[in-house]
Amino acid sequence: MYTHGHHESVLRSHRWRTAENSAGHLLPHLTSGATLLDVGCGPGTITADLATHITPGRVTALERTEDALDLARAEIDRRGLGTVDFAVGDVHALDFPDDTFDIVHAHQVLQHVGDPVQALREMRRVTKPGGIVAVRDSDYAAFTWFPLLPELEEWLELYERVARANGGEPDAGRRLLSWARAAGFTDITATSSTWCFATDEDRTWWGTMWADRILKSDMAGQAVNSGAADQATLERISAGWRQWATEPDGWMSLLHGELILHP
Fold it and tell me: Quick count: other Cβ atoms within 10 Å of Cβ 65?
């Protein structure tokens, strides 16, 4: 199960993502005319950026459902891009022949899947010899912030509990290297990067987004329905996010693990 869902508060975050702020480890490897599979493309902002980097090459945007894929279609249509194809599928069993793509990319995907090693095996299988698999995932336990508000500590503990109940691994970033080795990769470049929110504008955007998300996203319903939290707890965490957003000394850094893999 995808923990976050597709509520507006979630999409507000996902639509902020670009190739530059979320796939910098991949950008030096992109070449004009390449073919690229974007696994778990979400609302398509990164997908569209990648398409512009490899024009006239083609990108295939992959999602689990048609409804989710429609979010990417809307973004691609908005940008007027004609080099993006769309497919519904499961990363554990990709419906593409061996050696189909020059590049296979997944951003914030492996933390949500039931078997990340199998997902990486499939991504490797559909990558051409000499091609690249590129992945990037958050590591929630490595997130850090100031001031040390207890409500944000409570948020982190709750999110990790709900995500793991859904079969995911929210501390995926630190595990990517081990997963890739288990999937059979040997030519691996492992790095990390961060998102940092420290300006008044960034704090307001990130803090109010999570203040809404903890109340209205699929995660909120899962937390309440599972007994992990009650509505009062969610309201308290939401208020904590709003407080953090107004702190002039507020600072937050989110760590991500990254891999460039050669099959």
Answer: 10
d(CA 240, CA 28): 39
Q: Is 87 exposed, middle or buried (0-12, 13-18, 19+ CB in 10 A)?
A: middle
CA-wise closest residue to 125 among 32, 261, 258: 261
Between strands 187-197 and 251-262, the pairing is antiparallel
pLDDT on residue 12:
75
pLDDT in the model for residue 57: 98
The CA-atom distances, in angstroms, between 129 and each of 23, 34, 133 are 22, 13, 11
pLDDT of residue 14: 79
Token pair 């512009």: residue? 52
| Cβ count near 111 (within 10 Å) | 21
High-pLDDT (> 70) share of the chain, %: 98
- The closest of 21, 170, 18 to 109, measured between CA atoms, is 170
Q: Residue 248 phi/psi, 5° resolution? A: -65, -25
Find, among 159, 251, 248, 245, the residue nearest to 208 by Cα. Answer: 245
To 10 degrees, the CA torsion angle through 41, 30, 255, 160?
A: 30
Angstrom distance (rounded) from CA 93 to CA 12? 30
Cα–Cα distances in angstroms (integers) from residue 213 to residues 5, 128, 151, 152, 262, in the given order: 10, 39, 14, 13, 37
Q: Is 103 helix (H, G, I), strand (E, B) or coil?
A: strand
Q: How far apart are CA 2 and CA 75, in angstroms?
A: 21
Predicted confidence (pLDDT) per residue in 167-179, tens digit? 999 999 999 999 9
Stronger pLDDT, 223 or 198, i.e. the higher one: 198
User: Given this model, what pLDDT does residue 186 score?
Assistant: 97
Amino acid at 190: A
